[in-house]
Design brief:
The chain is an alpha/beta fold. It has 14 helices and 13 strands. The C terminus is likely disordered.
Protein backbone atom coordinates (compact mmCIF):
# COMPACT_ATOMS: atom_id res chain seq x y z
CA UNK A 1 0.00 0.00 0.00
CA UNK A 2 1.36 3.41 -0.98
CA UNK A 3 1.72 6.02 1.76
CA UNK A 4 -0.83 8.82 1.38
CA UNK A 5 0.49 12.37 1.56
CA UNK A 6 -0.43 14.34 4.66
CA UNK A 7 -0.07 17.57 2.68
CA UNK A 8 -1.91 20.32 4.56
CA UNK A 9 -1.15 23.85 3.34
CA UNK A 10 1.59 26.27 2.30
CA UNK A 11 2.93 28.78 4.81
CA UNK A 12 5.02 31.89 4.29
CA UNK A 13 8.54 31.55 5.68
CA UNK A 14 8.42 35.14 6.92
CA UNK A 15 4.88 36.32 7.74
CA UNK A 16 3.27 32.85 8.23
CA UNK A 17 0.38 33.61 5.84
CA UNK A 18 -1.37 30.44 4.62
CA UNK A 19 -1.99 29.38 1.04
CA UNK A 20 -3.95 26.57 -0.60
CA UNK A 21 -1.56 23.69 -1.33
CA UNK A 22 -3.64 22.54 -4.29
CA UNK A 23 -3.42 25.81 -6.22
CA UNK A 24 -0.34 26.99 -8.11
CA UNK A 25 1.57 29.30 -5.80
CA UNK A 26 4.93 30.99 -6.11
CA UNK A 27 6.04 33.54 -3.50
CA UNK A 28 3.97 34.98 -0.66
CA UNK A 29 2.45 38.40 -1.24
CA UNK A 30 5.17 39.74 1.08
CA UNK A 31 7.79 38.39 -1.34
CA UNK A 32 9.10 35.55 0.84
CA UNK A 33 9.29 31.84 -0.11
CA UNK A 34 6.44 29.48 0.78
CA UNK A 35 7.06 26.27 2.71
CA UNK A 36 4.99 23.07 2.64
CA UNK A 37 3.27 22.07 5.88
CA UNK A 38 1.86 18.64 6.70
CA UNK A 39 -0.71 17.21 9.08
CA UNK A 40 1.90 15.51 11.26
CA UNK A 41 -0.68 13.89 13.52
CA UNK A 42 -2.11 12.12 10.49
CA UNK A 43 1.34 11.26 9.12
CA UNK A 44 2.40 9.72 12.43
CA UNK A 45 -0.12 6.91 11.99
CA UNK A 46 1.91 5.32 9.18
CA UNK A 47 5.27 7.14 9.12
CA UNK A 48 7.07 4.88 11.61
CA UNK A 49 10.46 3.21 12.00
CA UNK A 50 8.98 -0.18 11.17
CA UNK A 51 6.97 1.00 8.17
CA UNK A 52 9.95 2.78 6.63
CA UNK A 53 12.16 -0.28 7.03
CA UNK A 54 9.80 -2.22 4.76
CA UNK A 55 9.66 0.30 1.93
CA UNK A 56 11.61 0.65 -1.31
CA UNK A 57 15.03 2.34 -0.89
CA UNK A 58 14.14 5.49 -2.84
CA UNK A 59 13.28 9.04 -1.92
CA UNK A 60 9.61 8.19 -2.56
CA UNK A 61 9.53 6.02 0.58
CA UNK A 62 8.64 9.15 2.58
CA UNK A 63 5.24 9.61 0.92
CA UNK A 64 3.37 10.94 3.95
CA UNK A 65 5.77 13.90 4.11
CA UNK A 66 5.99 14.53 0.39
CA UNK A 67 3.67 16.93 -1.48
CA UNK A 68 2.31 14.58 -4.16
CA UNK A 69 -1.38 13.77 -3.70
CA UNK A 70 -0.98 10.70 -5.93
CA UNK A 71 2.42 9.01 -5.84
CA UNK A 72 1.49 6.85 -8.82
CA UNK A 73 1.92 9.98 -10.93
CA UNK A 74 5.47 10.64 -9.80
CA UNK A 75 8.08 11.50 -12.42
CA UNK A 76 11.06 9.29 -11.71
CA UNK A 77 14.41 8.44 -13.27
CA UNK A 78 15.24 5.82 -10.64
CA UNK A 79 16.24 7.85 -7.59
CA UNK A 80 17.83 5.57 -4.97
CA UNK A 81 19.07 6.26 -1.46
CA UNK A 82 22.60 7.63 -1.74
CA UNK A 83 25.62 6.16 0.09
CA UNK A 84 26.73 7.34 3.52
CA UNK A 85 30.44 6.58 3.57
CA UNK A 86 32.90 6.67 6.49
CA UNK A 87 36.18 8.38 5.60
CA UNK A 88 38.67 6.48 7.79
CA UNK A 89 42.00 7.43 6.21
CA UNK A 90 41.14 11.05 5.47
CA UNK A 91 39.43 11.39 8.83
CA UNK A 92 42.58 10.31 10.68
CA UNK A 93 44.61 12.89 8.78
CA UNK A 94 42.12 15.62 9.69
CA UNK A 95 41.83 14.56 13.33
CA UNK A 96 38.22 13.50 12.86
CA UNK A 97 37.49 10.02 14.23
CA UNK A 98 33.95 9.94 12.84
CA UNK A 99 33.99 11.65 9.48
CA UNK A 100 31.35 10.71 6.90
CA UNK A 101 30.31 11.91 3.47
CA UNK A 102 26.87 11.50 1.93
CA UNK A 103 27.59 11.06 -1.76
CA UNK A 104 24.84 12.52 -3.92
CA UNK A 105 26.72 11.89 -7.17
CA UNK A 106 24.97 8.53 -7.56
CA UNK A 107 21.59 10.13 -8.31
CA UNK A 108 20.15 10.52 -11.83
CA UNK A 109 21.88 13.37 -13.72
CA UNK A 110 24.84 12.99 -11.33
CA UNK A 111 23.93 15.42 -8.56
CA UNK A 112 21.61 16.16 -5.65
CA UNK A 113 19.62 18.43 -7.96
CA UNK A 114 17.75 15.31 -9.09
CA UNK A 115 15.93 15.28 -5.74
CA UNK A 116 14.51 18.75 -6.21
CA UNK A 117 13.75 18.19 -9.88
CA UNK A 118 11.96 14.88 -9.27
CA UNK A 119 9.70 16.48 -6.68
CA UNK A 120 9.31 19.87 -8.33
CA UNK A 121 8.47 18.49 -11.77
CA UNK A 122 6.19 15.79 -10.34
CA UNK A 123 4.18 18.32 -8.37
CA UNK A 124 4.13 20.81 -11.26
CA UNK A 125 2.65 18.15 -13.54
CA UNK A 126 0.10 17.22 -10.87
CA UNK A 127 -0.95 20.88 -10.67
CA UNK A 128 -1.33 21.12 -14.45
CA UNK A 129 1.83 23.07 -15.31
CA UNK A 130 2.74 22.78 -18.99
CA UNK A 131 5.84 25.00 -19.17
CA UNK A 132 8.33 26.43 -16.71
CA UNK A 133 11.34 28.73 -16.70
CA UNK A 134 14.30 28.73 -14.34
CA UNK A 135 17.81 30.20 -13.94
CA UNK A 136 20.66 27.82 -13.12
CA UNK A 137 24.39 27.57 -12.59
CA UNK A 138 24.24 24.21 -14.38
CA UNK A 139 23.30 21.07 -12.47
CA UNK A 140 19.80 22.21 -11.53
CA UNK A 141 18.99 23.12 -15.12
CA UNK A 142 20.29 19.77 -16.35
CA UNK A 143 18.19 17.89 -13.79
CA UNK A 144 14.99 19.87 -14.38
CA UNK A 145 15.41 19.54 -18.16
CA UNK A 146 15.73 15.75 -17.86
CA UNK A 147 12.71 15.34 -15.59
CA UNK A 148 10.67 17.77 -17.72
CA UNK A 149 11.44 15.65 -20.79
CA UNK A 150 10.17 12.57 -18.96
CA UNK A 151 7.05 14.44 -17.82
CA UNK A 152 6.30 16.01 -21.21
CA UNK A 153 6.62 19.54 -19.81
CA UNK A 154 8.34 22.41 -21.68
CA UNK A 155 11.56 23.50 -19.97
CA UNK A 156 13.03 26.97 -20.47
CA UNK A 157 16.50 27.15 -18.92
CA UNK A 158 18.58 30.32 -18.54
CA UNK A 159 22.27 29.82 -17.72
CA UNK A 160 25.42 31.96 -17.45
CA UNK A 161 27.69 31.60 -20.48
CA UNK A 162 30.63 30.55 -18.32
CA UNK A 163 28.78 27.59 -16.76
CA UNK A 164 30.44 24.20 -17.45
CA UNK A 165 29.80 23.17 -21.07
CA UNK A 166 28.47 19.76 -20.03
CA UNK A 167 25.41 21.42 -18.48
CA UNK A 168 24.57 23.23 -21.69
CA UNK A 169 24.87 19.92 -23.55
CA UNK A 170 22.58 18.15 -21.04
CA UNK A 171 19.87 20.78 -21.34
CA UNK A 172 20.00 20.84 -25.13
CA UNK A 173 19.92 17.05 -25.46
CA UNK A 174 16.93 16.90 -23.13
CA UNK A 175 15.05 19.22 -25.46
CA UNK A 176 15.01 22.29 -23.23
CA UNK A 177 15.00 25.79 -24.69
CA UNK A 178 18.36 27.11 -23.46
CA UNK A 179 19.27 30.80 -23.15
CA UNK A 180 22.82 31.85 -22.26
CA UNK A 181 23.51 35.19 -20.57
CA UNK A 182 26.56 37.24 -19.65
CA UNK A 183 27.15 37.39 -15.91
CA UNK A 184 25.99 35.16 -13.07
CA UNK A 185 22.88 33.37 -11.85
CA UNK A 186 21.30 36.63 -10.70
CA UNK A 187 21.49 37.91 -14.27
CA UNK A 188 19.88 34.67 -15.47
CA UNK A 189 17.20 35.19 -12.84
CA UNK A 190 16.29 38.58 -14.25
CA UNK A 191 15.78 37.04 -17.70
CA UNK A 192 13.52 34.38 -16.18
CA UNK A 193 11.53 37.04 -14.32
CA UNK A 194 10.89 38.83 -17.62
CA UNK A 195 9.70 35.58 -19.25
CA UNK A 196 7.39 34.78 -16.34
CA UNK A 197 6.00 38.33 -16.35
CA UNK A 198 4.90 37.87 -19.96
CA UNK A 199 2.54 35.16 -18.72
CA UNK A 200 1.90 31.45 -19.21
CA UNK A 201 5.13 30.32 -17.58
CA UNK A 202 5.60 28.67 -14.17
CA UNK A 203 8.56 30.12 -12.26
CA UNK A 204 10.73 27.19 -11.12
CA UNK A 205 13.49 29.41 -9.70
CA UNK A 206 15.06 28.40 -6.40
CA UNK A 207 12.48 28.87 -3.60
CA UNK A 208 10.07 30.66 -5.94
CA UNK A 209 8.13 27.41 -6.03
CA UNK A 210 7.65 25.44 -2.79
CA UNK A 211 8.36 21.87 -3.89
CA UNK A 212 12.06 21.70 -4.80
CA UNK A 213 12.88 21.93 -1.11
CA UNK A 214 10.63 18.92 -0.41
CA UNK A 215 12.82 16.80 -2.67
CA UNK A 216 16.02 18.13 -1.12
CA UNK A 217 14.79 17.43 2.42
CA UNK A 218 14.79 13.69 1.71
CA UNK A 219 18.57 13.90 2.24
CA UNK A 220 17.74 14.59 5.87
CA UNK A 221 15.37 11.65 6.20
CA UNK A 222 17.90 9.33 4.58
CA UNK A 223 20.92 10.32 6.63
CA UNK A 224 19.01 9.86 9.89
CA UNK A 225 17.93 6.38 8.84
CA UNK A 226 21.49 5.57 7.77
CA UNK A 227 22.79 6.71 11.16
CA UNK A 228 20.26 4.33 12.78
CA UNK A 229 17.98 7.19 13.85
CA UNK A 230 20.73 9.18 15.55
CA UNK A 231 21.69 12.77 14.74
CA UNK A 232 25.27 13.73 13.75
CA UNK A 233 26.95 16.48 15.72
CA UNK A 234 27.91 18.58 12.70
CA UNK A 235 26.57 18.77 9.12
CA UNK A 236 28.62 20.73 6.57
CA UNK A 237 26.74 21.85 3.49
CA UNK A 238 28.02 23.65 0.36
CA UNK A 239 25.78 26.69 0.28
CA UNK A 240 24.75 28.70 -2.75
CA UNK A 241 20.98 29.08 -2.72
CA UNK A 242 20.92 27.05 0.49
CA UNK A 243 17.88 24.92 -0.38
CA UNK A 244 19.54 21.67 0.69
CA UNK A 245 20.56 23.03 4.08
CA UNK A 246 17.06 24.43 4.65
CA UNK A 247 15.56 21.13 3.51
CA UNK A 248 17.66 18.94 5.80
CA UNK A 249 16.80 21.18 8.76
CA UNK A 250 13.11 20.98 7.82
CA UNK A 251 13.28 17.18 7.64
CA UNK A 252 14.90 16.90 11.07
CA UNK A 253 12.29 19.13 12.67
CA UNK A 254 9.49 17.08 11.10
CA UNK A 255 11.09 13.89 12.44
CA UNK A 256 11.41 15.46 15.87
CA UNK A 257 7.76 16.51 15.90
CA UNK A 258 6.81 12.96 14.95
CA UNK A 259 8.82 11.66 17.91
CA UNK A 260 11.18 9.65 15.68
CA UNK A 261 14.30 11.44 16.92
CA UNK A 262 15.08 13.33 20.13
CA UNK A 263 15.40 17.05 20.70
CA UNK A 264 19.11 17.30 19.89
CA UNK A 265 19.82 18.95 16.53
CA UNK A 266 23.11 19.11 14.62
CA UNK A 267 25.21 22.23 14.27
CA UNK A 268 24.97 23.25 10.62
CA UNK A 269 27.91 24.76 8.75
CA UNK A 270 27.17 26.77 5.61
CA UNK A 271 30.28 26.40 3.45
CA UNK A 272 30.99 28.96 0.73
CA UNK A 273 33.92 29.89 -1.51
CA UNK A 274 36.06 32.90 -0.66
CA UNK A 275 35.26 34.28 -4.10
CA UNK A 276 31.52 34.36 -3.33
CA UNK A 277 30.64 34.35 0.36
CA UNK A 278 27.65 36.62 1.06
CA UNK A 279 26.15 34.35 3.73
CA UNK A 280 29.50 34.05 5.51
CA UNK A 281 29.82 37.82 5.70
CA UNK A 282 26.23 38.18 6.93
CA UNK A 283 26.80 35.51 9.60
CA UNK A 284 29.98 37.23 10.81
CA UNK A 285 28.03 40.47 11.22
CA UNK A 286 25.05 38.63 12.73
CA UNK A 287 22.77 40.09 10.08
CA UNK A 288 19.36 38.62 9.23
CA UNK A 289 20.05 38.66 5.48
CA UNK A 290 23.02 39.05 3.16
CA UNK A 291 24.31 41.85 0.97
CA UNK A 292 24.70 41.01 -2.74
CA UNK A 293 28.24 39.86 -3.51
CA UNK A 294 30.23 41.59 -6.23
CA UNK A 295 33.20 40.36 -8.25
CA UNK A 296 32.35 36.65 -7.97
CA UNK A 297 35.17 34.25 -8.86
CA UNK A 298 35.53 30.58 -7.86
CA UNK A 299 35.96 27.15 -9.43
CA UNK A 300 33.06 25.99 -7.23
CA UNK A 301 30.56 27.33 -9.76
CA UNK A 302 27.57 25.62 -8.14
CA UNK A 303 27.80 27.77 -5.01
CA UNK A 304 28.54 31.02 -6.81
CA UNK A 305 25.26 32.69 -5.83
CA UNK A 306 25.79 36.41 -5.08
CA UNK A 307 22.41 36.78 -3.35
CA UNK A 308 20.11 33.94 -2.31
CA UNK A 309 16.39 34.61 -1.96
CA UNK A 310 16.28 32.30 1.07
CA UNK A 311 19.41 33.65 2.76
CA UNK A 312 17.42 34.77 5.80
CA UNK A 313 16.17 31.19 6.31
CA UNK A 314 19.70 29.78 6.06
CA UNK A 315 20.99 32.33 8.57
CA UNK A 316 18.12 31.58 10.95
CA UNK A 317 19.02 27.87 10.85
CA UNK A 318 22.62 28.74 11.72
CA UNK A 319 21.69 31.07 14.57
CA UNK A 320 19.06 28.76 16.10
CA UNK A 321 21.34 25.73 16.11
CA UNK A 322 24.63 27.38 17.13
CA UNK A 323 25.97 26.70 13.66
CA UNK A 324 28.29 28.83 11.61
CA UNK A 325 29.34 29.89 8.11
CA UNK A 326 32.83 29.62 6.68
CA UNK A 327 34.51 30.38 3.35
CA UNK A 328 37.38 28.34 1.89
CA UNK A 329 39.77 29.21 -0.91
CA UNK A 330 39.84 27.54 -4.29
CA UNK A 331 43.32 26.26 -3.43
CA UNK A 332 42.04 24.59 -0.26
CA UNK A 333 39.09 22.90 -1.92
CA UNK A 334 41.13 21.69 -4.91
CA UNK A 335 43.74 20.24 -2.57
CA UNK A 336 40.99 18.48 -0.64
CA UNK A 337 39.46 17.20 -3.88
CA UNK A 338 42.79 15.51 -4.64
CA UNK A 339 43.10 14.16 -1.09
CA UNK A 340 39.62 12.63 -1.13
CA UNK A 341 40.39 10.90 -4.43
CA UNK A 342 43.82 9.59 -3.41
CA UNK A 343 42.89 8.60 0.17
CA UNK A 344 39.31 7.41 -0.26
CA UNK A 345 38.69 6.90 -3.98
CA UNK A 346 36.01 9.59 -4.02
CA UNK A 347 35.87 12.01 -6.94
CA UNK A 348 34.05 14.86 -5.22
CA UNK A 349 32.75 17.92 -6.98
CA UNK A 350 34.44 21.18 -6.05
CA UNK A 351 31.50 22.16 -3.87
CA UNK A 352 31.60 18.87 -1.97
CA UNK A 353 35.37 19.12 -1.51
CA UNK A 354 34.82 22.58 -0.01
CA UNK A 355 32.92 21.01 2.90
CA UNK A 356 35.86 18.76 3.79
CA UNK A 357 38.27 21.68 3.50
CA UNK A 358 36.02 23.56 5.93
CA UNK A 359 35.93 20.55 8.27
CA UNK A 360 39.73 20.52 8.41
CA UNK A 361 39.85 24.23 9.23
CA UNK A 362 37.16 23.93 11.91
CA UNK A 363 38.87 20.95 13.53
CA UNK A 364 42.19 22.79 13.60
CA UNK A 365 40.48 25.78 15.21
CA UNK A 366 38.70 23.65 17.81
CA UNK A 367 35.15 24.43 16.70
CA UNK A 368 34.72 20.76 15.83
CA UNK A 369 35.67 18.74 18.89
CA UNK A 370 37.48 15.43 19.11
CA UNK A 371 35.10 12.48 18.90
CA UNK A 372 32.24 14.40 17.27
CA UNK A 373 30.37 12.76 14.40
CA UNK A 374 30.82 14.97 11.35
CA UNK A 375 28.89 14.67 8.09
CA UNK A 376 29.90 16.41 4.86
CA UNK A 377 27.52 16.53 1.89
CA UNK A 378 29.00 15.92 -1.56
CA UNK A 379 26.43 17.36 -3.91
CA UNK A 380 27.66 15.84 -7.18
CA UNK A 381 30.35 14.21 -9.25
CA UNK A 382 33.53 16.01 -10.29
CA UNK A 383 32.87 14.57 -13.74
CA UNK A 384 29.95 17.02 -14.09
CA UNK A 385 32.45 19.89 -14.30
CA UNK A 386 33.32 18.61 -17.75
CA UNK A 387 37.02 19.32 -17.37
CA UNK A 388 39.76 19.66 -14.77
CA UNK A 389 39.85 23.30 -13.58
CA UNK A 390 42.60 25.24 -15.41
CA UNK A 391 44.48 26.17 -12.26
CA UNK A 392 44.59 22.49 -11.23
CA UNK A 393 46.37 21.31 -14.40
Amino acid sequence: MRAASALWHLACSKCAARYDADAIAQLCSCGAPLLVRYDLERAAQTFTHQALSEREPTLWRYGELLPLRDLSGRISLGETMTPLLPLHRLGRELGLDELFVKDESTLPTGSFKARGAAMGVSRAKELGVRAFAMPTNGNAGAAWAAYAARAGIEANIVMPKNAPAIHRWECERAGARLTLVDGFIGDAGRVVAEEVARGGMYDASTLKEPYRIEGKKTMGFELIEQFDWSVPDVILYPTGGGVGLIGIDKALHELRELGLIGDRMPRFVAVQAEGCAPIVEAWKAHQSSSTPWTNTHTVAFGIAVPKAIGDFIVLDVLYRGEGMAIAVSDGELLEMQRSAASREGLFLCAEGAATLAAARRLREGGWIKSGERVLAINTGSALKAGAVPTRDR
